[in-house]
């Protein structure tokens, strides 16, 4: 419940009050507190907004609180709102907890009316300025408060410019502007049925209300959905004394960063425009100057600005971005915040601040994120290739994609099959487009955000995507897309080349070379090999990544292993920092050339036939294991026994049925296929994911798991004899009850004993299980007694806990579910803490309780997801296992998880 | 740990010590305590046996305890084991906690040797008897202790009978028997390499050990597996002074029941054989007499026996069966226990004992079971049809099946398609036989027990089955089965008729008429309509079922509803006592003639097409609802919105592919099929159970659920206008998160409001959800806030919690899992308490906590399973919903659950 205080003077708040005062308000208060030159003002809280949105009226106490805040403001400046001599004017700006740039309303120059405009003219000594300000107020007010179409005002203005025979509105005279004010007021009267209010306080109250309401404008709602910002936060409103950058050449306005946000290199960066207001900088009407130019034209202000920026950076201990205005030689700070930066800059700035003693190593680690690191790892478009930026969309799935534009999924499939790289361009995608999406190297849509069908599916497939590039006019029937780019209309047709950057949302014309990123090259090839070839910024970024990643390694409790199925993967993973393999699938050992042997195993009609076929597979499997164990020598390698149902190794049933039917129709001999079809029918399952697989297969098909265990044990013997230190672990998949694992453990132990006897070498290894069924989690106390370790298979656990299979549903309804808010993020991307995560927590607690030495890890894809890694840290796992290229991310986030958890427990 | 006492005198124990003394030992002790004439003796405990089985030797303390128990026995009788004048002989019998008739060993006449046999002859005055007893000891001992093949003894005996030129062994003289003893001892010496031991104590100790060991004989293990008796219980051993029924015409032996166990009618029933031992009664060598015969030949003993039986029944307050021996006019009780009875007798006896004041109403209810009632409900083979009993097997799945024998599953399918009723006869079944099992009316196997593949699959399909009929010699290649029946070899060939009783395990030759059972007729037609047509026993059973069922209704807290999808089902369910419908599926409303409309909905390319097709379906759905609600007027009807994925309403994909391929091959027009195939491919799911179904469908396919809700609301309006009191409830399937339900609830409420407005009648109804996904259970606290009720869909919840689909796995590995002890019973039959049940418990607790008025029920098939009903009672549900024919079972068990739970909490 609100505490009853809805209005805070800038001098009352601080930067920690973002939830109450919004980001802008909290930082204005902070700067005021620091004694920086902030125009005085006050903030109406987000609580007031939430009240308004719920009750459809302002909280009763608000009016009197605004009155007293306003009086304080007037007293401090010695000016009155609406005064006919030297009137106080205020700006009314939104300021939400999370930045939503341009999404909500702003009204400037509040307080002007037919009388005070004269006072402003008098006080500023600039009549034109006064009437121009009044005109601006009326149009802004008309649009935001009185719901009058802005086009009406702009047309009237254009007309006046034409009539006056001048080039632009800035050349209009005071008298001409005065006429426009008359016209504007008439427009409001006609289109809203009401007068533009002359009472300054009414203007103020209605402006505040309009900002409240703009929280729920369509574009604001859309933006929030895309950016996953909660709908019930509301916005604060900042009421601030106006200062003017357009009072002559000794006035001006600018934006600046305390360091370069693109590369992270030190030194201030910014744009300045003399004799202009903030909007003019944003609108890009005139070419801006640099801060160096300001230093030469106005050294005192420039010095003050530099000092202020240093002060802010020291105070915030981070890169800040600011907005400022110079009014007749006096500097005013209008806004500051911790600035956004690129991924590379984030690492570099964190290291700089650390070296400058502003932050600790822990803080430096907390300042970077796994998703920033992930951006630095994906292949990149060559920089400065000079290609034209066609448009920008939402960066929906990272990575670089270069290919030929196609509009039709069927053509995408066709072209891809003929070896071409295609980029599928659609207005938006739907489940019918899936095949085309699979065939494409990248996806580009005109509509939809990060949770659109295209984005969800692309991320699921690990494919670059740019979505919601709204400037694109996609004509799927004509197979063309048109876009206004830098004032020019460009047409793309089927077959034209584009290049997408899924991390930035940029779309370029033509083919841009794609290369491994400097950071991934350093990780795979080593610092010394890569550093000489890098430019200064890349080199700096790589060194900083190295430094922070190594620090994360010293901090983290979670070990990081890799999901890797081959020697090559294992080697790569080790370079990327893997401390073992958490999931070595053995399915691939049954594919390729071995398919025929596997078919013989499956189709065996006698146990001798089966045994023979298994025996032929054994040496091949052993060699696979030797290769992997050798690459990971000295580190644990968790081998999962065969998981998929046997029919996955046989031909597709429908295809076979068609083949048999056609052969019969043609009178050809189909006996081999018919025999195969009988077996396929026998093994057919309507829901193979819920069928005869994993440990069930091991218990029902004699010799199958024994084959694998024997091959692994023999590989172990071979490597130990060669002087190695292999550390295999055996993992039984899909266990649902303790007895399954006990039975399997008996069989495994028996095989190991046989190999021990044969080889004369003691062969023993940890035996554990996947926890990937709800029942396994729920009965972990029992299962743990038969297990040396648990590894959470969170992919399958997510599928069974939710009762959906990723293959089937991701395309079918995930986008709709994200749109409708059932998911805030796909549960396959980040672990669903209250459902799946609760099972993990139950399992950890009850497993450890009944078996205190139990080792616990996770090998689902969540093992490489930043948010999920924090959860796994909190819940107390020993390790996460991730695909090789997520390992650096996992190392970093495992370290961050320690810092973040410690910080959370400090504040608790 | 054993407390160190391994031997209890009969005078020390009581009937509550079955776990320690075994069933036989505890009851012998109880009878001793009651002062009934039990020959003195002592019991070696199950603990001693378990120790022996674990350590492979007797517990050290056992020897001295046996010594002192034996001394007490000798002292009380004044006779000594092995005495040369009047020796004490003892029997050594197994006695497990659960009866395992004939499975373990017995050794009689222990204590006889070359010297004491003379003493026995002297004391009994019957030399022939003495040598016959000695002969019996040697052969029993040789077989059980010394591992000599029993055939060697029986052949030697046959040879002696032949040589003596007599008809049977009973005509052999004392001298001839003496010679046989010499031969028997020689057999033992030759085949075991050891002498038959002359030391009586050695005989005793080795006999006890042999009984211990017989616990783990193959046949005992097999029996336990079939009967689901734990393998680690062990058996007690009863050592009892011998009494002899074969000492002349004033001696004899018999078995008796205190009431008729077949019909439950009052009065003693039994068999008596003069001048005979117990084995002779069992072997059926001579025709037995009735107890009435005994009364005329030996009235004093008969009277004492009758009094004893009355005493036992009063004491045990239940039907008892007994074994007794008369030794020279003196009655000895050798065994008693609460007797087995048929299902009908169980109800009748419970009522009788109640009327006699021996038991309370609660106890009467506890004395009968739901599975007994279920037996009384299945169709029955006509009694006294006179057909020959071919053999008996394990009653694996109840019900009557009459049909023609087939041995080949393919022929079963073929014949069934041509309209014949077939009974599939196999040595044992495996997953390949599934189609044949589906096609058959009943299944008969020669091997396997209640957990065999055939049994599990048959129960899953609700099909009668008799398994493990080991007398059958099945020759599948020759398509014939031979069986010895009453000494005659009978051959059955393909096409011959048999009749199976799956409740008793009986297999009859020929066709026996099948009819509804008297109990089911009474339930459906009413008592008055049925009673006159029944014989006395059936009438009594029906009256008793009625009485106990009505009592259960007064006791139970759980309400009982039906799973019913049509007016007919609803009406039937109401007769059977349903208090509403807990699950009305709506899938069938999309089948049959409506398929075409449904196809139009699915294939619609525009929303108009879809809306039109939906509109055409609406009135049909409304009529369905009217019919069901009318039948259940005044009672709640829970309607589940559409659950299955849409492709279930379209043709099979593989079939369609074949059709299209063949049409193309033939150059025929396949465009309609091709169009259909595109849609089928689009909707194809690799795991439909985990796909786009339930609430997902409702949220993704516009108008689908609204159609159903509108139809239901309109049906409601129609019925209320006609003066009815319909009580529909809307159930949303497959909810996994609270938001899904909230969204669906909004849509449903909107539709109801529309119908309210249209009709001018307030239309509102409870809206709830299935809890059938682990995530729903785990987030019940949230979901409950949007739900008026939860209904546990324990079928799907079992499938997702375990991660297997019933369709795929029941045939594939359930039998193996039961065999291996992973399951003790199929989790689809009885709820898996520690896994699935734990989720139910979590959901109940957290759902109620966040929504105190939440109504809770279950609509999975477990709702009709006795053991599961007890769980649902304990966990606090409000109702169970079961298929109509399980409703009486559910009513009964819901009542019993109250009694059993109260008893359990009393003893706690």
UniProtKB/TrEMBL annotation, chains A, B:
Keyword field: ATP-binding, Kinase, Magnesium, Metal-binding, Nucleotide-binding, Transferase
InterPro entries: ATP_grasp_subdomain_1, PEP-util_enz_mobile_dom, PEP_util_AS, PEP_util_C, Phosphohistidine_dom_sf, PPDK_AMP/ATP-bd, Pyruvate_phosphate_dikinase, Pyrv/PenolPyrv_kinase-like_dom
Names of required cofactors: Mg(2+)
Record-linked PROSITE patterns: PEP_ENZYMES_PHOS_SITE (PS00370)
Enzymatic class: transferase
SUPFAM superfamilies named among the record's database cross-references: Glutathione synthetase ATP-binding domain-like (SSF56059), Phosphoenolpyruvate/pyruvate domain (SSF51621), Phosphohistidine domain (SSF52009)
Residue ranges occupied by any PEP-utilising enzyme C-terminal domain in the UniProt entry: 549-894
Gene Ontology molecular-function annotations: ATP binding; kinase activity; metal ion binding; pyruvate, phosphate dikinase activity
Ranges of residues in domain Pyruvate phosphate dikinase AMP/ATP-binding: 19-56, 65-287, 302-343
E.C. no: 2.7.9.1
PEP-utilising enzyme mobile domain span: 421-505
NCBIfam families attached to this UniProt entry: PRK05878.1, pyru_phos_dikin
Family: Belongs to the PEP-utilizing enzyme family.
Protein name listed in UniProt: pyruvate, phosphate dikinase
Organism: freshwater metagenome
